[in-house]
Amino acid sequence: MLDDEAGRLIRPYTVCGGRTRPTSDFDLLTLVRATGRGTHGYLDPDHSQVLLLCREATPVAEIAAHVRLPATVTKVLLSDLVECGAVTVSAPPDPDVDPDRHLLEAVLHGLRTRL
């Protein structure tokens, strides 16, 4: 729950039920994507918000920024979603592999059109 002036009204510790460690292995660049499978139970608003952000492959750091939660809390929520099969995770692209030139040109074009 957020209040624009006060910020988050519920402590992050409460959001993840007091858990401090995720059960799945993530780093900040891990890509997370929704599977489209049901969650087989009730999702609280924070889980639902995280799941909506995962419609496309999204890095953990970006998800944490959007939901305004510490990365560790976000990882705990993501672990819950992995366990129920609602999301999958994949390693970030290998930085040693040369990126596709056409992809980089498309990103540059997209950035220029937004400015």
TrEMBL record:
It comes from the Bacteria. This is DUF742 domain-containing protein. It comes from Streptomyces bohaiensis.
